[in-house]
């Protein structure tokens, strides 16, 4: 039987003149071979056991891994180049750099405009009343002044409170009268609050009755 007229899938070769009645037989042979009832041919055994075939497969796998490594290396280089050129290629970074330069330019311009005052201050660092502070304590002084500034702004009020506390006496009975007045005021507030709560509950009940009716 000449099986060369059939394809590998068991179908009849349309260009062959062989009888189509052999097609089912070829299909059966293919199924039997897939199930393992037919031993591999000698050529297949040679291909599977040949060292050269295994070496070729290993070389193919190595080439594939090398291509993947090359792609990873290329991606890393692109990332590094993107990071190095971000000041030029990224719009957001350029805008930030421009703002920083503008801020620095404004600061330098203010220094130039105040050049005469700076010269005077450098030539005469101590003008008028001043507090001599050693250089090692300048940082603490800079932290202290913002904290005491609100106290100095309300210094008059604080002094009045200190004077009032100093003049206050507990022996004349004024504190007792003040505490009594405070107690009466709190009691009145409590009573008013209870009345308001009771009124709110009554209004809620009336509203509920109106809805039902």
Automatic annotation (TrEMBL):
Quote the cellular component terms of the Gene Ontology held in the record: centrosome; HAUS complex; mitotic spindle microtubule
Its GO biological process annotations read: centrosome cycle; microtubule nucleation; spindle assembly
Cited InterPro entries? HAUS2, HAUS2_metazoa
Q: Name one Pfam family in it.
A: HAUS2
Q: What is this protein called?
A: HAUS augmin-like complex subunit 2
Q: Which species is this record about? A: Magallana gigas
């Amino acid at each position: 039987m000449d099986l060369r007229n059939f394809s590998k899938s068991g179908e009849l070769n349309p260009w062959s003149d062989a009888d189509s009645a052999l097609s089912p037989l070829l299909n059966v042979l293919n199924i039997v071979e897939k199930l393992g009832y037919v031993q591999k041919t000698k050529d297949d055994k040679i291909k599977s056991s040949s060292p050269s075939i295994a070496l070729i497969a290993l070389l193919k796998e190595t080439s594939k891994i090398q291509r993947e490594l090359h792609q990873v290396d290329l991606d890393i280089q692109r990332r590094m180049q993107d990071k190095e050129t971000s000041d030029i290629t990224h719009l957001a970074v350029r805008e930030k750099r421009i703002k920083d330069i503008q801020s620095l330019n404004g600061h330098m311009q203010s220094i130039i405009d105040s050049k005469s005052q700076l010269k005077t201050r450098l030539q005469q660092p101590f003008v008028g009343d001043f507090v001599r502070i050693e250089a090692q304590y300048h940082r603490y002084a800079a932290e202290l002044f913002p904290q005491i500034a609100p106290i100095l702004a309300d210094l008059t009020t604080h002094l009045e409170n200190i004077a009032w506390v100093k003049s206050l006496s507990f022996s004349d009975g004024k504190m007792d009268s003040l505490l009594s007045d405070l107690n009466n005021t709190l009691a009145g507030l409590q009573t008013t609050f209870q009345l308001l709560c009771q009124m709110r509950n009554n209004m809620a009940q009336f509203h509920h009755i109106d809805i039902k009716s």
